[in-house]
Amino acid sequence: MAEAYIIDAVRSPVGRRGGSLSGIHPADLGAHSLRALVDRVGIDPGAIDDVVLGAIDAIGGQAGNVARTAALVAGFPEHVPGVTIDRQCGSSQQAVHFAAQAVMSGVDDLVIAGGLQNMSQVPLLAAAIVGEAYGFTTPYAQSPGWRERYGDQEISQFAGAELIAEKWDISREEMEQFALESHRRAAVAQDEGRFSNEIAPLNDLDRDEGVRRDTTLERMAQLAPLREGGRITAAVSSQISDASSAVLIASARAVREHGLTPRARIHQMTVRGASPVLMLTAPIPATRHALERAGLGVGDIDLFEVNEAFAPVVLAWMRELDAPYEKVNVNGGGIALGHPIGATGTRLLATMLNELERTGGRYGLQAMCEGGGVANVTIIERL
What we know:
This protein is an alpha/beta fold and 383 residues long. 37% of the residues lie in helices and 18% in strands. The radius of gyration is 20 Å and the shape is globular. The model has no long low-confidence stretch (mean pLDDT 96).
């Protein structure tokens, strides 16, 4: 089968809600990573066959196929198309899959995959909230077919996180220790410059804003749970953030014709579903499926990036896969670095790629839980 190569990966810093990037129009936020990517690679943007960007809540500045808008704002020629996709938290990771599939099939030779999200301007679930205000039905509860299959129980990522903590008997204290370590690892990574090769500074911001260097277990313990009697607090949840990210995927022919130097190749791509009630457990079966299809075991993987939507998601995943914590999210995760939903997938990929190069690892595995009980898993091989 034809190969899909990763040529480069670039991202903006991740801004905190209401922070340094909050006032940037989503299209301009996305355009920043697109421009930075083609400038770094030194390729004519007119050679790009497609721009595939993830973004959820297609409303306001993120409406109207924002991928196309971002490409035009970035100065790409008008013949370069763009498409926006929504696989919830895995949107930009799915963009990578679509880009790689287009290249491997021979349909395209150069595709930019990435994502954007300005959660300061467009709050999470904004589209559903506006829809309700206009009298439209909600995504789940008002569907008769849905109620027939799943009843009237609450369906949300917050409820799912609580259910996971209960099912795997993960204590609040264990989750808070995990969250504290996420911040500690992220701070070390910043101090050692581990993110510098992937971040294209924006608005005088050159590092992720969410890292809390002064947080403590005592402070976390004082926070009220998100729901009465629950274990999940803001401290063990990913941060609402603003950012963009982009990856250039190329065929072997494009590598030859444009004189490109691949940094890695896509080794395996998986997407799998699981319970939409538990919501966030699909990375477990998806990882097992990806490893089986790749003919690899957990011990063959040098680095894991498992999105920290909530601490119990990663803790349950590690228990089920028997994955060593010293290889998982070694530079921190969404709890410390933020989770700009549409952009997170390719943010994780950029971080994993650079860390594989820093440590000399061969294989990296990225897993993402997603709304609706779905998960993407991507395995890359450093070249």
